[in-house]
Automatic annotation (TrEMBL), chain A:
Family named by the database record: Belongs to the actin family.
PANTHER family cross-referenced by the UniProt entry: ACTIN
Gene name of the encoded protein: Actl6a
Name of this chain's protein: Actin-like protein 6A
Spans through the membrane: none
Automatic annotation (TrEMBL), chain B:
Gene name linked to the record: COF1
Family of the protein in this entry: Belongs to the actin-binding proteins ADF family.
Entry annotated with the keyword Metal-binding: no
Pfam families found in the cross-reference section: Cofilin_ADF
Gene3D superfamilies named among the record's database cross-references: Severin (3.40.20.10)
Organism: Grifola frondosa
Alphabetized InterPro entries for the sequence: ADF-H (IPR002108), ADF-H/Gelsolin-like_dom_sf (IPR029006), ADF/Cofilin (IPR017904)
Cellular compartment(s): Nucleus matrix
UniProt keyword list: Actin-binding
Annotated protein name in UniProt: Cofilin
PANTHER family (UniProt xref): COFILIN-RELATED
Leader sequence residues: none
Amino acid sequence: MVNYGGDEVSALVIDIGTSSIRAGYAGDDNPKAIIPTSYGYLPDAPTTTEDVTMGEAGQNGPSLWRDGMRVENPMTNGLIQDFEPIPPLLNHALSEVMRCSASEHPVLVTEAPWNTAANRERMAEIMFEEFQVPAFYIANTGVLNAFAAGKGTALVIDVGQSTASVTPVVDGFVLRKGLQYSALPQLVHAHAKHLLTSPTNKRPGIQLLPHQLIATKTPVDAGALPRFQVREDRVAGTTDSWKLWYEAREVDEWIQSVAGVLDQGWNDQAALARGARHYEFPTGYNYYFNGMERYSVGEQFFTHSPQLVASNPNLPKTIPALVSASMNACDPDMRQVLFGNIVLIGGGSLFSGFADRLHNEIERQTPHAKFHAPGNPTERRYGGWLGGSILASLGTFHQLWISKEEWQEHGKAIVGQRCK
Amino acid sequence: MASGVGVNPDCLNAFQELKLGKKTRYIIFTLSPDNTEVVVEKKSESHDYEQFMADLPENECRWAIYDFEFEKPDGGRRNKITFYSWSPDDAKIKHKMLFASSKDALRRSLVGIAAEIQGTDYSEVSHESVFEKVSKGN
Protein backbone atom coordinates (compact mmCIF):
# COMPACT_ATOMS: atom_id res chain seq x y z
CA MET A 1 0.00 0.00 0.00
CA VAL A 2 1.18 3.45 -0.80
CA ASN A 3 2.21 5.31 2.29
CA TYR A 4 0.45 8.63 2.43
CA GLY A 5 1.02 10.92 5.36
CA GLY A 6 0.06 14.53 5.91
CA ASP A 7 -1.40 16.34 2.97
CA GLU A 8 0.92 14.60 0.49
CA VAL A 9 -1.72 12.15 -0.70
CA SER A 10 -1.29 12.81 -4.44
CA ALA A 11 -4.64 11.20 -5.11
CA LEU A 12 -6.32 11.25 -8.50
CA VAL A 13 -9.84 12.56 -8.94
CA ILE A 14 -12.04 11.35 -11.79
CA ASP A 15 -15.40 12.86 -12.66
CA ILE A 16 -17.27 11.17 -15.50
CA GLY A 17 -19.97 13.21 -17.22
CA THR A 18 -21.96 12.83 -20.42
CA SER A 19 -20.01 15.43 -22.33
CA SER A 20 -16.55 15.01 -20.83
CA ILE A 21 -14.42 13.00 -18.44
CA ARG A 22 -12.45 15.15 -16.03
CA ALA A 23 -9.36 13.74 -14.38
CA GLY A 24 -6.61 15.39 -12.36
CA TYR A 25 -4.57 15.49 -9.20
CA ALA A 26 -6.29 16.14 -5.89
CA GLY A 27 -5.45 19.58 -4.58
CA ASP A 28 -5.34 21.21 -8.02
CA ASP A 29 -7.98 23.74 -8.88
CA ASN A 30 -8.39 22.52 -12.45
CA PRO A 31 -8.61 19.02 -13.90
CA LYS A 32 -5.42 18.17 -15.83
CA ALA A 33 -7.21 16.06 -18.41
CA ILE A 34 -10.60 16.89 -19.91
CA ILE A 35 -11.47 14.40 -22.62
CA PRO A 36 -14.77 13.93 -24.44
CA THR A 37 -16.80 10.95 -23.24
CA SER A 38 -17.98 10.21 -26.78
CA TYR A 39 -15.51 7.97 -28.55
CA GLY A 40 -15.13 6.72 -32.10
CA TYR A 41 -14.39 3.16 -33.13
CA LEU A 42 -14.08 1.06 -36.26
CA PRO A 43 -16.49 -1.87 -36.09
CA ASP A 44 -14.22 -4.12 -38.19
CA ALA A 45 -11.27 -3.79 -35.83
CA PRO A 46 -10.46 -7.05 -33.99
CA THR A 47 -11.55 -5.74 -30.59
CA THR A 48 -13.44 -2.52 -30.29
CA THR A 49 -11.79 -1.66 -27.01
CA GLU A 50 -8.35 -1.52 -28.57
CA ASP A 51 -9.20 0.83 -31.36
CA VAL A 52 -10.73 3.76 -29.68
CA THR A 53 -10.15 7.18 -31.11
CA MET A 54 -10.10 9.79 -28.46
CA GLY A 55 -9.10 13.39 -28.37
CA GLU A 56 -6.33 15.00 -26.43
CA ALA A 57 -7.34 17.14 -23.51
CA GLY A 58 -9.23 20.17 -24.70
CA GLN A 59 -9.79 18.80 -28.15
CA ASN A 60 -12.92 17.26 -29.41
CA GLY A 61 -12.76 13.50 -29.48
CA PRO A 62 -14.09 11.84 -32.56
CA SER A 63 -13.82 15.02 -34.62
CA LEU A 64 -11.20 13.37 -36.79
CA TRP A 65 -12.98 11.89 -39.78
CA ARG A 66 -12.23 8.20 -40.42
CA ASP A 67 -13.68 5.85 -42.96
CA GLY A 68 -16.51 3.85 -41.38
CA MET A 69 -15.92 5.21 -37.87
CA ARG A 70 -18.90 5.05 -35.51
CA VAL A 71 -19.41 7.13 -32.43
CA GLU A 72 -20.75 5.91 -29.11
CA ASN A 73 -21.27 7.38 -25.68
CA PRO A 74 -21.33 5.07 -22.64
CA MET A 75 -23.58 7.39 -20.61
CA THR A 76 -27.38 7.43 -20.44
CA ASN A 77 -29.13 10.03 -18.29
CA GLY A 78 -25.97 10.81 -16.36
CA LEU A 79 -25.22 7.19 -15.45
CA ILE A 80 -22.71 4.82 -17.00
CA GLN A 81 -24.75 2.38 -19.05
CA ASP A 82 -22.00 0.60 -20.91
CA PHE A 83 -18.93 -0.21 -18.82
CA GLU A 84 -16.89 -1.76 -21.58
CA PRO A 85 -15.39 1.47 -22.96
CA ILE A 86 -14.78 2.95 -19.50
CA PRO A 87 -11.36 1.35 -18.89
CA PRO A 88 -9.92 2.46 -22.26
CA LEU A 89 -11.39 5.96 -21.80
CA LEU A 90 -9.91 6.30 -18.30
CA ASN A 91 -6.68 4.78 -19.45
CA HIS A 92 -6.52 7.39 -22.17
CA ALA A 93 -7.11 10.22 -19.70
CA LEU A 94 -4.65 8.92 -17.12
CA SER A 95 -1.82 7.39 -19.14
CA GLU A 96 -1.97 9.31 -22.41
CA VAL A 97 -2.99 12.76 -21.27
CA MET A 98 -1.79 12.94 -17.66
CA ARG A 99 1.05 10.46 -18.14
CA CYS A 100 0.63 8.88 -14.74
CA SER A 101 -0.08 5.40 -13.52
CA ALA A 102 -3.24 4.80 -11.53
CA SER A 103 -1.58 1.96 -9.62
CA GLU A 104 0.50 4.51 -7.73
CA HIS A 105 -2.29 6.83 -6.59
CA PRO A 106 -5.47 6.52 -4.54
CA VAL A 107 -8.41 7.33 -6.82
CA LEU A 108 -11.58 9.23 -5.96
CA VAL A 109 -14.41 8.86 -8.47
CA THR A 110 -17.61 10.91 -8.46
CA GLU A 111 -21.10 9.57 -9.10
CA ALA A 112 -24.50 11.06 -9.90
CA PRO A 113 -26.87 11.25 -6.90
CA TRP A 114 -29.18 8.67 -8.54
CA ASN A 115 -26.38 6.19 -9.20
CA THR A 116 -27.23 2.54 -8.45
CA ALA A 117 -25.42 0.29 -5.99
CA ALA A 118 -24.52 -2.15 -8.75
CA ASN A 119 -23.01 0.66 -10.78
CA ARG A 120 -20.73 1.98 -8.05
CA GLU A 121 -19.57 -1.53 -7.18
CA ARG A 122 -18.71 -2.10 -10.83
CA MET A 123 -16.71 1.13 -10.76
CA ALA A 124 -14.81 -0.04 -7.68
CA GLU A 125 -14.13 -3.34 -9.37
CA ILE A 126 -12.72 -1.64 -12.47
CA MET A 127 -10.50 0.55 -10.33
CA PHE A 128 -9.14 -2.22 -8.10
CA GLU A 129 -8.94 -5.06 -10.59
CA GLU A 130 -8.04 -3.34 -13.85
CA PHE A 131 -6.20 -0.24 -12.70
CA GLN A 132 -4.71 -1.81 -9.56
CA VAL A 133 -5.32 1.33 -7.52
CA PRO A 134 -4.03 1.22 -3.91
CA ALA A 135 -7.14 2.92 -2.52
CA PHE A 136 -10.54 4.05 -3.79
CA TYR A 137 -13.47 6.23 -2.81
CA ILE A 138 -16.68 7.14 -4.60
CA ALA A 139 -18.32 10.45 -3.73
CA ASN A 140 -21.68 11.91 -4.64
CA THR A 141 -21.58 15.00 -6.87
CA GLY A 142 -24.61 16.52 -5.11
CA VAL A 143 -22.82 16.46 -1.76
CA LEU A 144 -19.50 17.55 -3.27
CA ASN A 145 -21.16 20.56 -4.89
CA ALA A 146 -22.96 21.50 -1.69
CA PHE A 147 -19.73 21.21 0.32
CA ALA A 148 -17.73 23.14 -2.27
CA ALA A 149 -20.22 25.98 -1.79
CA GLY A 150 -19.54 25.77 1.96
CA LYS A 151 -22.92 24.29 2.82
CA GLY A 152 -23.79 21.10 4.66
CA THR A 153 -27.43 21.65 3.80
CA ALA A 154 -28.32 22.88 0.32
CA LEU A 155 -30.59 22.41 -2.66
CA VAL A 156 -28.23 21.58 -5.52
CA ILE A 157 -29.54 22.35 -9.01
CA ASP A 158 -27.26 20.71 -11.53
CA VAL A 159 -27.79 21.27 -15.26
CA GLY A 160 -25.59 18.99 -17.32
CA GLN A 161 -25.44 18.04 -20.96
CA SER A 162 -27.98 15.25 -20.83
CA THR A 163 -29.71 15.63 -17.47
CA ALA A 164 -30.97 18.37 -15.19
CA SER A 165 -31.31 17.42 -11.54
CA VAL A 166 -32.43 18.88 -8.24
CA THR A 167 -30.80 17.27 -5.20
CA PRO A 168 -31.68 18.21 -1.62
CA VAL A 169 -28.62 17.67 0.59
CA VAL A 170 -29.17 17.74 4.36
CA ASP A 171 -26.19 17.61 6.73
CA GLY A 172 -24.03 16.07 4.04
CA PHE A 173 -26.49 13.39 2.97
CA VAL A 174 -28.71 13.29 -0.10
CA LEU A 175 -32.41 13.17 0.69
CA ARG A 176 -33.28 10.42 -1.76
CA LYS A 177 -37.01 11.03 -1.68
CA GLY A 178 -36.54 14.62 -2.80
CA LEU A 179 -34.19 13.77 -5.63
CA GLN A 180 -35.57 14.81 -9.01
CA TYR A 181 -34.04 14.67 -12.47
CA SER A 182 -35.14 14.82 -16.07
CA ALA A 183 -33.71 14.74 -19.56
CA LEU A 184 -34.56 18.41 -20.02
CA PRO A 185 -31.26 19.50 -21.66
CA GLN A 186 -31.90 16.91 -24.37
CA LEU A 187 -35.28 18.47 -25.07
CA VAL A 188 -33.70 21.93 -25.30
CA HIS A 189 -31.16 20.52 -27.71
CA ALA A 190 -33.84 18.82 -29.82
CA HIS A 191 -35.80 22.06 -29.91
CA ALA A 192 -32.76 23.98 -31.16
CA LYS A 193 -32.04 21.37 -33.80
CA HIS A 194 -35.64 21.41 -35.00
CA LEU A 195 -35.60 25.19 -35.11
CA LEU A 196 -32.46 25.23 -37.26
CA THR A 197 -33.33 22.46 -39.68
CA SER A 198 -36.94 23.42 -40.41
CA PRO A 199 -37.58 26.19 -42.93
CA THR A 200 -39.27 29.45 -41.95
CA ASN A 201 -40.85 32.05 -44.20
CA LYS A 202 -37.59 34.02 -44.11
CA ARG A 203 -35.03 31.27 -44.60
CA PRO A 204 -34.77 27.66 -45.79
CA GLY A 205 -34.01 24.82 -43.38
CA ILE A 206 -30.33 24.81 -42.51
CA GLN A 207 -28.14 21.91 -43.51
CA LEU A 208 -25.93 20.85 -40.61
CA LEU A 209 -23.13 19.50 -42.76
CA PRO A 210 -19.83 18.96 -40.96
CA HIS A 211 -16.82 20.88 -42.25
CA GLN A 212 -15.00 17.58 -42.60
CA LEU A 213 -17.32 16.76 -45.51
CA ILE A 214 -16.95 20.06 -47.32
CA ALA A 215 -14.36 20.40 -50.05
CA THR A 216 -14.75 24.07 -50.98
CA LYS A 217 -17.09 26.88 -50.19
CA THR A 218 -17.48 30.48 -51.30
CA PRO A 219 -18.51 33.31 -49.01
CA VAL A 220 -22.15 34.32 -49.42
CA ASP A 221 -24.24 37.18 -48.03
CA ALA A 222 -26.25 36.67 -44.88
CA GLY A 223 -29.39 34.67 -45.61
CA ALA A 224 -28.31 33.73 -49.14
CA LEU A 225 -28.20 30.08 -50.18
CA PRO A 226 -24.80 28.54 -49.40
CA ARG A 227 -22.41 27.69 -52.24
CA PHE A 228 -20.22 24.75 -51.36
CA GLN A 229 -18.97 21.46 -52.71
CA VAL A 230 -19.23 18.22 -50.74
CA ARG A 231 -16.23 15.89 -50.47
CA GLU A 232 -17.74 13.06 -52.48
CA ASP A 233 -14.95 10.65 -51.54
CA ARG A 234 -15.99 10.79 -47.89
CA VAL A 235 -19.76 10.55 -48.23
CA ALA A 236 -19.89 6.75 -48.52
CA GLY A 237 -17.63 6.16 -45.51
CA THR A 238 -19.54 8.46 -43.16
CA THR A 239 -21.62 6.57 -40.62
CA ASP A 240 -24.94 7.76 -39.26
CA SER A 241 -23.70 7.78 -35.68
CA TRP A 242 -20.77 10.02 -36.56
CA LYS A 243 -23.06 12.36 -38.48
CA LEU A 244 -25.50 12.54 -35.59
CA TRP A 245 -22.67 13.23 -33.17
CA TYR A 246 -21.36 16.00 -35.39
CA GLU A 247 -24.78 17.57 -35.87
CA ALA A 248 -25.28 17.57 -32.10
CA ARG A 249 -21.98 19.37 -31.73
CA GLU A 250 -22.88 21.94 -34.35
CA VAL A 251 -26.22 22.58 -32.62
CA ASP A 252 -24.42 22.92 -29.27
CA GLU A 253 -22.06 25.45 -30.73
CA TRP A 254 -24.92 27.43 -32.17
CA ILE A 255 -26.70 27.37 -28.80
CA GLN A 256 -23.60 28.51 -26.97
CA SER A 257 -22.91 31.43 -29.23
CA VAL A 258 -26.41 32.59 -30.10
CA ALA A 259 -29.15 31.30 -27.78
CA GLY A 260 -30.15 32.69 -24.38
CA VAL A 261 -32.85 32.89 -21.74
CA LEU A 262 -35.03 35.92 -21.06
CA ASP A 263 -34.56 36.81 -17.43
CA GLN A 264 -38.14 37.99 -16.80
CA GLY A 265 -40.22 35.25 -18.39
CA TRP A 266 -41.40 34.93 -21.98
CA ASN A 267 -42.61 37.99 -23.83
CA ASP A 268 -42.54 38.37 -27.63
CA GLN A 269 -41.65 42.06 -27.50
CA ALA A 270 -38.87 41.58 -25.01
CA ALA A 271 -37.44 38.74 -27.08
CA LEU A 272 -37.48 40.77 -30.29
CA ALA A 273 -35.95 43.74 -28.52
CA ARG A 274 -32.84 41.71 -27.77
CA GLY A 275 -31.82 42.05 -31.37
CA ALA A 276 -30.36 39.66 -33.89
CA ARG A 277 -27.09 37.80 -33.72
CA HIS A 278 -25.01 36.51 -36.56
CA TYR A 279 -23.86 32.91 -36.93
CA GLU A 280 -22.11 31.11 -39.77
CA PHE A 281 -22.41 27.38 -40.36
CA PRO A 282 -19.68 25.17 -41.87
CA THR A 283 -21.48 25.21 -45.24
CA GLY A 284 -20.88 28.93 -45.42
CA TYR A 285 -24.54 29.68 -44.82
CA ASN A 286 -24.84 32.59 -42.42
CA TYR A 287 -27.82 34.32 -40.97
CA TYR A 288 -28.90 36.92 -38.42
CA PHE A 289 -31.01 35.01 -35.90
CA ASN A 290 -33.59 37.28 -34.30
CA GLY A 291 -34.51 37.41 -30.64
CA MET A 292 -37.54 35.15 -31.03
CA GLU A 293 -35.44 32.32 -32.37
CA ARG A 294 -32.56 32.86 -29.98
CA TYR A 295 -34.57 33.08 -26.79
CA SER A 296 -37.22 30.45 -27.55
CA VAL A 297 -34.46 27.85 -27.13
CA GLY A 298 -33.60 28.75 -23.55
CA GLU A 299 -37.27 29.17 -22.71
CA GLN A 300 -37.62 25.39 -22.97
CA PHE A 301 -35.78 25.09 -19.66
CA PHE A 302 -38.60 26.92 -17.90
CA THR A 303 -41.87 26.47 -19.79
CA HIS A 304 -43.28 24.02 -22.31
CA SER A 305 -45.59 25.47 -24.94
CA PRO A 306 -49.21 24.20 -24.77
CA GLN A 307 -48.85 22.60 -28.23
CA LEU A 308 -45.86 20.60 -27.07
CA VAL A 309 -47.63 19.46 -23.91
CA ALA A 310 -50.66 18.38 -25.93
CA SER A 311 -48.62 16.38 -28.42
CA ASN A 312 -46.38 14.65 -25.90
CA PRO A 313 -47.62 13.58 -22.46
CA ASN A 314 -44.21 12.41 -21.24
CA LEU A 315 -42.22 15.62 -21.48
CA PRO A 316 -39.22 15.97 -19.19
CA LYS A 317 -40.01 18.25 -16.25
CA THR A 318 -38.95 21.88 -16.49
CA ILE A 319 -36.54 23.31 -13.91
CA PRO A 320 -39.28 25.03 -11.84
CA ALA A 321 -41.33 21.79 -11.96
CA LEU A 322 -38.31 19.80 -10.77
CA VAL A 323 -37.74 22.22 -7.91
CA SER A 324 -41.35 22.12 -6.72
CA ALA A 325 -41.59 18.33 -7.07
CA SER A 326 -38.45 18.01 -5.00
CA MET A 327 -39.73 20.43 -2.37
CA ASN A 328 -43.10 18.68 -2.10
CA ALA A 329 -41.31 15.44 -1.28
CA CYS A 330 -39.31 17.09 1.52
CA ASP A 331 -40.39 17.87 5.06
CA PRO A 332 -42.04 21.31 5.32
CA ASP A 333 -39.47 22.24 8.01
CA MET A 334 -36.66 21.56 5.58
CA ARG A 335 -38.08 23.68 2.78
CA GLN A 336 -37.15 27.02 4.20
CA VAL A 337 -33.54 26.13 4.89
CA LEU A 338 -33.18 24.43 1.49
CA PHE A 339 -34.61 27.46 -0.32
CA GLY A 340 -32.22 29.60 1.65
CA ASN A 341 -29.28 27.62 0.28
CA ILE A 342 -29.71 27.00 -3.42
CA VAL A 343 -26.54 26.04 -5.28
CA LEU A 344 -26.58 26.28 -9.06
CA ILE A 345 -24.03 24.14 -10.84
CA GLY A 346 -23.26 22.40 -14.14
CA GLY A 347 -22.11 23.53 -17.59
CA GLY A 348 -25.72 23.80 -18.82
CA SER A 349 -26.41 26.52 -16.26
CA LEU A 350 -23.90 28.78 -18.01
CA PHE A 351 -26.56 29.34 -20.66
CA SER A 352 -26.73 33.10 -21.07
CA GLY A 353 -29.29 34.58 -18.65
CA PHE A 354 -30.05 31.24 -17.00
CA ALA A 355 -29.08 32.09 -13.42
CA ASP A 356 -31.02 35.37 -13.43
CA ARG A 357 -34.14 33.73 -14.80
CA LEU A 358 -34.03 30.86 -12.31
CA HIS A 359 -33.55 33.35 -9.52
CA ASN A 360 -36.63 35.26 -10.64
CA GLU A 361 -38.72 32.11 -11.04
CA ILE A 362 -37.86 30.83 -7.59
CA GLU A 363 -38.21 34.20 -5.93
CA ARG A 364 -41.74 34.43 -7.29
CA GLN A 365 -42.63 31.24 -5.37
CA THR A 366 -40.54 31.82 -2.26
CA PRO A 367 -39.45 35.31 -1.38
CA HIS A 368 -36.78 34.09 1.06
CA ALA A 369 -34.78 32.14 -1.49
CA LYS A 370 -31.03 32.69 -1.49
CA PHE A 371 -28.88 31.77 -4.38
CA HIS A 372 -25.32 30.65 -4.72
CA ALA A 373 -24.09 30.40 -8.29
CA PRO A 374 -20.29 30.42 -8.64
CA GLY A 375 -19.34 33.27 -10.94
CA ASN A 376 -16.24 31.44 -12.04
CA PRO A 377 -17.15 29.18 -15.01
CA THR A 378 -14.58 26.55 -13.97
CA GLU A 379 -16.21 26.22 -10.58
CA ARG A 380 -19.60 25.97 -12.24
CA ARG A 381 -18.63 23.38 -14.84
CA TYR A 382 -16.27 21.28 -12.79
CA GLY A 383 -17.80 21.85 -9.33
CA GLY A 384 -18.07 18.14 -8.64
CA TRP A 385 -14.49 17.52 -9.66
CA LEU A 386 -13.25 20.47 -7.65
CA GLY A 387 -15.07 19.33 -4.53
CA GLY A 388 -13.58 15.88 -4.93
CA SER A 389 -10.17 17.41 -5.49
CA ILE A 390 -10.29 19.29 -2.18
CA LEU A 391 -11.72 16.38 -0.24
CA ALA A 392 -9.19 13.86 -1.56
CA SER A 393 -6.29 16.21 -0.86
CA LEU A 394 -7.00 16.33 2.87
CA GLY A 395 -4.58 14.39 5.03
CA THR A 396 -7.38 13.57 7.44
CA PHE A 397 -9.45 12.04 4.67
CA HIS A 398 -7.06 9.10 4.27
CA GLN A 399 -8.77 7.07 6.99
CA LEU A 400 -11.86 6.93 4.79
CA TRP A 401 -10.28 5.50 1.67
CA ILE A 402 -11.12 1.88 0.87
CA SER A 403 -7.70 0.25 0.64
CA LYS A 404 -6.86 -2.61 -1.63
CA GLU A 405 -6.49 -4.96 1.34
CA GLU A 406 -9.99 -4.09 2.54
CA TRP A 407 -11.36 -4.65 -0.93
CA GLN A 408 -9.74 -8.04 -1.13
CA GLU A 409 -11.01 -9.00 2.30
CA HIS A 410 -14.60 -7.71 2.18
CA GLY A 411 -15.36 -7.53 -1.52
CA LYS A 412 -18.08 -5.36 -3.02
CA ALA A 413 -20.06 -4.89 0.19
CA ILE A 414 -17.50 -2.44 1.56
CA VAL A 415 -18.28 0.16 -1.10
CA GLY A 416 -21.81 0.67 0.20
CA GLN A 417 -20.66 0.66 3.83
CA ARG A 418 -17.83 3.14 3.47
CA CYS A 419 -19.06 5.57 0.84
CA LYS A 420 -22.35 6.84 2.14
CA MET B 1 -19.14 11.71 3.51
CA ALA B 2 -16.83 13.43 5.95
CA SER B 3 -13.36 14.89 5.95
CA GLY B 4 -12.11 12.79 8.87
CA VAL B 5 -11.09 15.88 10.84
CA GLY B 6 -11.02 15.31 14.62
CA VAL B 7 -12.31 17.44 17.49
CA ASN B 8 -9.95 18.74 20.16
CA PRO B 9 -11.16 17.89 23.71
CA ASP B 10 -10.97 21.62 24.56
CA CYS B 11 -14.02 22.17 22.37
CA LEU B 12 -16.10 19.84 24.49
CA ASN B 13 -14.84 21.36 27.72
CA ALA B 14 -15.66 24.86 26.55
CA PHE B 15 -19.10 23.72 25.47
CA GLN B 16 -19.81 22.05 28.83
CA GLU B 17 -18.70 25.24 30.54
CA LEU B 18 -21.15 27.26 28.48
CA LYS B 19 -23.96 24.78 29.02
CA LEU B 20 -23.53 24.25 32.77
CA GLY B 21 -21.65 27.33 33.96
CA LYS B 22 -24.08 29.75 32.28
CA LYS B 23 -21.32 32.33 32.19
CA THR B 24 -19.82 31.99 28.75
CA ARG B 25 -22.05 33.60 26.18
CA TYR B 26 -20.49 32.31 23.00
CA ILE B 27 -17.67 30.18 21.62
CA ILE B 28 -16.05 30.47 18.22
CA PHE B 29 -14.50 27.32 16.74
CA THR B 30 -12.06 27.06 13.88
CA LEU B 31 -9.71 24.52 12.31
CA SER B 32 -6.13 24.10 13.51
CA PRO B 33 -3.52 25.51 11.08
CA ASP B 34 -2.68 22.01 9.77
CA ASN B 35 -6.39 21.28 9.18
CA THR B 36 -6.45 18.14 11.30
CA GLU B 37 -8.71 19.08 14.18
CA VAL B 38 -11.33 21.53 15.38
CA VAL B 39 -10.08 23.92 18.07
CA VAL B 40 -11.55 26.74 20.16
CA GLU B 41 -10.65 30.16 18.79
CA LYS B 42 -12.41 32.35 21.31
CA LYS B 43 -14.61 32.18 24.38
CA SER B 44 -16.46 35.27 25.43
CA GLU B 45 -18.81 36.42 28.15
CA SER B 46 -19.86 39.53 26.30
CA HIS B 47 -23.62 39.95 25.99
CA ASP B 48 -23.23 42.25 23.03
CA TYR B 49 -24.55 40.47 19.93
CA GLU B 50 -22.78 42.98 17.69
CA GLN B 51 -19.52 41.90 19.25
CA PHE B 52 -20.33 38.28 18.38
CA MET B 53 -21.09 39.20 14.77
CA ALA B 54 -17.84 41.11 14.58
CA ASP B 55 -16.01 37.96 15.63
CA LEU B 56 -17.22 36.16 12.51
CA PRO B 57 -14.62 37.11 9.89
CA GLU B 58 -15.80 38.55 6.61
CA ASN B 59 -14.09 36.05 4.32
CA GLU B 60 -13.24 33.03 6.42
CA CYS B 61 -15.36 30.16 7.67
CA ARG B 62 -16.06 29.45 11.34
CA TRP B 63 -18.41 27.56 13.58
CA ALA B 64 -19.93 29.09 16.66
CA ILE B 65 -22.09 28.27 19.65
CA TYR B 66 -24.20 31.10 21.01
CA ASP B 67 -26.30 30.88 24.14
CA PHE B 68 -29.25 32.75 22.71
CA GLU B 69 -31.42 34.38 25.35
CA PHE B 70 -34.77 35.97 24.65
CA GLU B 71 -38.01 36.89 26.31
CA LYS B 72 -41.37 35.49 25.31
CA PRO B 73 -44.31 37.89 24.90
CA ASP B 74 -45.76 36.55 28.16
CA GLY B 75 -42.57 37.43 29.96
CA GLY B 76 -40.93 33.98 30.23
CA ARG B 77 -37.19 33.90 29.65
CA ARG B 78 -35.73 31.28 27.34
CA ASN B 79 -32.21 30.20 26.57
CA LYS B 80 -31.48 28.34 23.36
CA ILE B 81 -28.03 27.03 22.61
CA THR B 82 -27.61 27.72 18.92
CA PHE B 83 -25.06 26.24 16.56
CA TYR B 84 -23.78 28.42 13.68
CA SER B 85 -22.04 27.33 10.51
CA TRP B 86 -20.49 30.48 9.12
CA SER B 87 -19.36 30.20 5.51
CA PRO B 88 -19.31 33.53 3.64
CA ASP B 89 -19.44 33.46 -0.17
CA ASP B 90 -16.08 35.18 -0.39
CA ALA B 91 -14.25 32.47 1.56
CA LYS B 92 -11.77 30.29 -0.31
CA ILE B 93 -13.39 27.26 -1.87
CA LYS B 94 -10.97 24.94 -0.08
CA HIS B 95 -12.00 26.34 3.27
CA LYS B 96 -15.67 26.14 2.47
CA MET B 97 -15.25 22.50 1.51
CA LEU B 98 -13.18 21.75 4.61
CA PHE B 99 -15.57 23.40 7.00
CA ALA B 100 -18.70 21.96 5.39
CA SER B 101 -17.33 18.42 5.41
CA SER B 102 -15.98 18.68 8.98
CA LYS B 103 -19.06 20.26 10.53
CA ASP B 104 -20.68 16.93 11.27
CA ALA B 105 -17.79 15.80 13.50
CA LEU B 106 -18.10 18.89 15.71
CA ARG B 107 -21.88 19.03 15.64
CA ARG B 108 -22.23 15.40 16.72
CA SER B 109 -19.89 15.78 19.68
CA LEU B 110 -21.91 18.66 21.16
CA VAL B 111 -25.05 17.47 22.92
CA GLY B 112 -27.95 19.75 23.76
CA ILE B 113 -28.13 22.13 20.82
CA ALA B 114 -31.57 23.61 20.26
CA ALA B 115 -31.19 25.21 16.86
CA GLU B 116 -28.84 25.35 13.90
CA ILE B 117 -28.08 28.33 11.70
CA GLN B 118 -26.31 28.12 8.35
CA GLY B 119 -25.05 31.57 7.42
CA THR B 120 -23.36 32.96 4.34
CA ASP B 121 -23.81 36.66 5.05
CA TYR B 122 -24.42 38.83 8.07
CA SER B 123 -28.15 39.19 7.47
CA GLU B 124 -28.59 35.46 8.00
CA VAL B 125 -26.95 35.53 11.41
CA SER B 126 -28.44 38.83 12.56
CA HIS B 127 -30.24 38.93 15.87
CA GLU B 128 -33.67 39.21 14.23
CA SER B 129 -33.33 36.27 11.86
CA VAL B 130 -31.88 34.01 14.54
CA PHE B 131 -34.59 35.12 16.96
CA GLU B 132 -37.24 34.32 14.38
CA LYS B 133 -35.83 30.83 14.02
CA VAL B 134 -35.25 29.90 17.65
CA SER B 135 -38.45 31.39 19.04
CA LYS B 136 -40.64 29.33 16.74
CA GLY B 137 -42.94 26.92 18.58
CA ASN B 138 -41.58 27.65 22.04
